[in-house]
Specification:
Blueprint (H helix, E strand, L loop, with lengths): L5 E4 L1 E2 L14 H4 L5 E10 L9 E12 L5 E4 L8 E3 L2 E10 L13 E3 L4 E8 L10 E3 L2 E5 L12 E2 L3 E3 L2 E3 L3 E2 L6 E8 L3 E9 L5 E4 L3 E2 L4 E11 L4 E2 L13 E3 L7
Parallel strand pairs: 2-12
Antiparallel strand pairs: 1-6, 3-4, 3-7, 4-5, 7-11, 8-9, 9-17, 10-13, 14-22, 15-21, 16-20, 17-18, 17-19
Length: about 260
Amino acid sequence: PTNGAPSDVITFAPYVPQTKAGFIMDNDDFNADGNKMIVYDYIRANPNTPTEGASGWYMEGVSLECDENGAWSYTGTAEGKEFLWIDQSENTFFGWLDMKDDNWYGNDVRPSFNPGKRTLSVPSITFEKDSPVHDFMYSNVLTRYYEKSPADGSVPSAEVPLEMRHLFSAIAFGVKNSTNSNVVVKSFSVKGLCSENSAVIDFANNAAVTYGAGTRSTDVYVAKNSTDLTVGPGIRYANVFNASATAPEYMIMWPHNGTG
């Protein structure tokens, strides 16, 4: 589509919703200096007119980068190209975190996007106890009609607030002593975690995620402290890896029930 009446630059303001549970990447972590996103925008020109205008990809794999102030800007486009809102257009936005590490989770195969189906295929990844704790974030699908001069006289916002979601699970192990005596934790084990799987994110269906069958690990995950952890009567530690209990430390795994 051509932009006959350009207005403000389209700006992105991704955010991570606050949850009660602990998570690997919160809003501040996501909107941090150097983080990158890949974004798409499918546009329909004049969708409310009898003769609808042209449709197609307005942004197709455009790279964004966050600065030290948490602001996202366009990178990787020719001569720093910016994308402007097109008057009387319907825009459908979505995107995902672009991992900075070229060796994506130790896997040579990176996620692949099918523009015809609007699906992002995340390849098979196997996690182990000591795997790097990197979350993969993808957005919701946000559709917005933009009108430069609304009839009610309001001023349209130039921001696109994409809600970011977690693909993987963060697992922390805590202990609580419900006895009247000291308990010494030397080690523990867990079986049956979903250590290997793949997924497809369907942006044509509101970013619905379909997980593969997955593999329940036959290994025993044993967590050992460098020194034994003594837990006094009635004391609870948020994480056996972190005896100070100031903050959990996590393992990264696929969702156990395969539903995200």
